[in-house]
Amino acid sequence: MRRLIISMCFYSFIFSTAHAADSVFIEELTWVEVRDAIRSGKTTIIFPTGGTEQNGPHMVLGKHNVIVKHAAGEIARRLGNALVAPVLAYVPEGNLNPPGGHMLFPGTITLPEEHFIKVTEYAARSFRVHGFKDIVLIGDSGPNQKGLQAAATLLNKAWAGSDVRVHYIGDYYHSATFNKWLRSQGETAESIGTHAGIKDTSELMAINPDYIRRDKLAPGGDFKVTGVNGNPARASVAYGKQGLEFKIAAAVAQIRKVLGGR
């Protein structure tokens, strides 16, 4: 029996090690594995940005980070030639003094836009040093979009004439398909909302339901009091799976279009 247990543990270790080496997330790989992946043709790197912000009394502050990591991993797997950088959890979330935006709620962390752009820029510069040719920027939060686009413009201008490009993939966030689909399911614009309503809550629920406080699900009411716009009580795992598929598919389609034959 003891020999059987030891044998089972050994094979479990071998399996888990092999699985880790196949990961698309560079934070789960060694530098040797990243080097070899680049040499084998995985020269696209996805830089996902999330945020640390209030999401109502029913949803954890890391919502965007969880969602964008899940989505970026699936995007990379579908592309087949991409890896995923660690999620940037510090993004513009509102003013500090006086507090504004999501900074009205405890736990939110904000970063001035110019610093967000600079962090994105130097992450991309790091990727270029190691041989990545296509640097893909996706953001799961609205305030991320302008800064990501600015960083892409800045770097493409600086690297004009080289074989490295930075791609801001706005379709990941801006696609209206999920809203239209929810309306086709009988949901109203008021229930769908704009923050911590049906969409965000459903997507996180589909990835990790432990991050949802089901006893706190309720219509938003006064946003400045609850931090919610919409009715998260209407959220569901089925809605979340569909919403994630919409944004993943939109990103993959845009990435393939901008990469062309690369």
Description of the molecule:
The radius of gyration is 20 Å and the shape is globular. A 4-stranded parallel beta sheet has the order 2-1-3-4, sandwiched between helices. The chain is of the alpha/beta class and about 260 residues long. Helix content is about 50%, strand content about 5%. It has a domain at about 25-175 and about 245-260: Rossmann fold (3-Layer(aba) Sandwich).
Side by side, the strands of the main sheet go 2-1-3-4
In percent terms, what proportion of residues is strand?
5-15%
CATH architecture of one domain: 3-Layer(aba) Sandwich
The SSE string, one letter per element, is HHEHEHEHEHHHHHH
The beta-strand count equals 4
CATH superfamily of one domain: Creatininase
Structural class comes to alpha/beta
The shape is: globular
Structural key phrases:
262 residues, alpha/beta, Rossmann fold, four-stranded parallel sheet, 4 strands, 7% strand, globular
Question: What's the topology here?
Answer:
Blueprint: H1 2-21, H2 31-39, E1 44-49, H3 63-79, E2 82-84, H4 113-129, E3 134-139, H5 144-158, E4 165-168, H6 171-174, H7 177-184, H8 189-192, H9 198-207, H10 223-226, H11 237-259
Helix pairs in contact: 3-9, 3-11, 4-5, 9-11
